[in-house]
């Protein structure tokens, strides 16, 4: 991600020194020129996998609860204050989020596998499936223009896929023998960088 506000965001999990089964998660950032890591969320909420909107003013996160379940929680990317939170549909566990314009999408897992869902009306809890769940894994989920890009193992190895939620068009963008990961486009979109598996490891 190339954030508009000059910050790079991520979620960071830390173990509890006193209770071995307890862990905390915070949304953190660092300026792209360096400096110290800073928090924008505290340990009262378990927030993970922030996805920034187009102007980097909001971050859609996945919030998990100690008793189970998850929600999509949108926070202010500068202050960390909660904007709104929407529970995941019953039977779904949210994993990662991405924005296209004002629409928020989430990769989620159920008994039927991974699927992609859109929050139809912000803050009102109306979800719709845009890619039905399949017995595959979806990870590294993010937006790319008006499409969603992610890593998926639907061929048996990890490859890059693009999905257009407006048209339903799903395209496999790479084809490698042992699978690949860590996909990232250059700033001018001329090149795709990734790590490729070989019998000797990654290169």
Biggest sheet strand order reads 4-5-6-7
Helix percentage range: under 10%
Taking the alpha carbons of the first and last residues, their distance comes to 22 Å
Q: What order do the helices and strands follow?
A: EEEEEEEEEEEEEEEEEE
- Our count of helices gives 0
Average pLDDT for all residues? 90
The largest β sheet comes out as: 4 strands, antiparallel
Structural Rg:
17 Å
Describe the structure.
The chain has strands spanning 7-15, 23-31, 34-39, 46-52, 58-64, 70-76, 82-87, 93-100, 103-110, 113-121, 126-134, 138-144, 147-152, 159-164, 169-172, 180-185, 192-198, 201-202. The chain contains no helices and 18 strands. The strands form 5 sheets. The chain has a 4-stranded antiparallel β-sheet with strand order 4-5-6-7, with no helix packed on it. A 4-stranded antiparallel β-sheet has the order 8-9-10-11, with no helix packed on it. It starts with 6 loop residues before the first strand and ends with a strand. The radius of gyration is 17 Å and the shape is globular. Helices cover 0% and strands 61% of the residues. The protein has 203 residues and is mostly beta strands.
